[in-house]
Amino acid sequence: MRDPENVFHLAIPCADLDATQDFYVNKMGCELGRRYDDRVTLNFFGDQVVCHLDPDGIDKEPKMYPRHYGVTFRHAADYDALLDKTEKHGLPFFQEPFVRFGGKREEHRTFFLIDPSNNLLEFKHYNDPSMMY
User: Fold this and answer.
1) Is beta strand 9-14 parallel, antiparallel or unpaired with respect to 47-53?
2) Cα-atom radius of gyration of the chain, to the nearest Å?
């Protein structure tokens, strides 16, 4: 079980630190932790995402599965607020918002974004919070 005092850490490649910081901080609303010449560290909804400058590590043709990351929101209002912010800032969808598993216990709303370095982000909300895991 996760101790809420601990923070999950994810490191991903990026092609351009300025574009990465603009996408995550200015448009998505993530908090900038720190920035160095080779990386940007972000507070990504309470967890740590570090975007390492690695233009050669960029996925030229990203696919949703199996590699993406994101947040499963417990509250629909948080999902809706991020979706509104995404649309307001014109962030690029990799997959427009849709409902998965409609009518089933695991039904959830989801959308995928693509960041400036082709990293895919999924955000979702389950009607039944017991399905979050």
Assistant:
1) parallel
2) 15
List phi, psi (to 5°) of 22.
Answer: -60, -45
CB neighbours of 35 closer than 8 A, spacing ≥ 6?
17, 21, 41
Task: Give the residues across from 69 on adjacent strands.
Answer: 121
Q: Domain residues for 98?
A: 9-54+62-131
- Token pair 């101790």 in the structure block, residue: 3
Split into its structural domains, the chain has a count of 1
The model carries a pTM of 0.93
Chain segment 34-89, per-residue pLDDT in tens = 999 999 999 999 999 999 999 999 999 999 998 999 999 999 999 999 999 999 99
Nearest alpha-carbon partner for 23 in 85, 121, 112, 115: 115
